[in-house]
Amino acid sequence: MSYENAKIGIGRMFRAEMIELLCSIIAVVVAVVELVLGTAASSSSLNTVDKVSAIMLIVVILLTIFAVILSLTGVLRASKDEDCFKRAIYAILLGMVCSVLASVFESRNEFLTSVLNSAQRACLILETYYVLTGCANLCDKVKDEKSAKTARTALSMICISVIASVAVSVIASLLKTKVGVVFSAVLALVAIIIEIIAQILYLVALRKTTKAL
């Protein structure tokens, strides 16, 4: 059986993730350049840096919009071959609604905004869960056990990352002593490392699934 729609869709999702990664790198580079040159450059040089930064910001915004559209169309295309991607679509749409509502209530209700932001992050986690589960299911269907294992490993790492992040928040709120602060900082660093590994595995899983199909 052919899974051409899933192959094309997951390929789009992979490219969208790479574009978002590129945007993150550009944003970091611009921030570092502004920080380094901002303290030593002349006023004319600062004007040039500001102009370049503004241009790069516009580029990042446009690329991010393109990546979101590419990812959404990818999930829609993949949903034709695997039901998990249909559930991912619902998570994406619900996340968008939460994000918009959070922006609307940002200056009006701090508690509601916090709840909506948390809901939006939960939707993102659900989206990732359904995408990776869909990738694993498709790899099982084409008898590619290694790629299926990669997708499930990525999913496990993302679950661990979420648990670690929650643990950091809980410990930081409960332990106000110096030992608690240090422990929270160490745990936060570990959570960041786990999240980076999980994101790398996510990209690898998308790529492997595309090749398997």
Task: Please tag this protein with its features.
213 residues, mainly alpha, 6 helices, 0% strand, globular
Written description of the protein model:
It is a single chain. The protein is mostly helical. The chain has a domain of 79 residues. Helix content is 89%, strand content 0%. The chain contains six helices and no strands. Helix 2 crosses helix 3 and helix 4 runs parallel beside helix 6. It is globular and about 55 Å long.
How many helix segments?
6
| Fraction in beta strands | under 5%
Q: What gross morphology would you assign? A: globular
Helix content: over 70%
| Poorly predicted residue ranges | none
Order of helices and strands: HHHHHH
**Number of beta-strand segments:** 0
Distance between the termini: 10 Å
Q: How many strands, which pairing sense, and closed or not: the largest β-sheet? A: none
Mean pLDDT: 82
Computed over alpha carbons, the radius of gyration is 20 Å
Assign the structural class, choosing from mainly alpha, mainly beta, alpha/beta, alpha+beta, or little secondary structure.
Answer: mainly alpha
Concise description?
With 213 residues, the protein is an all-alpha fold.
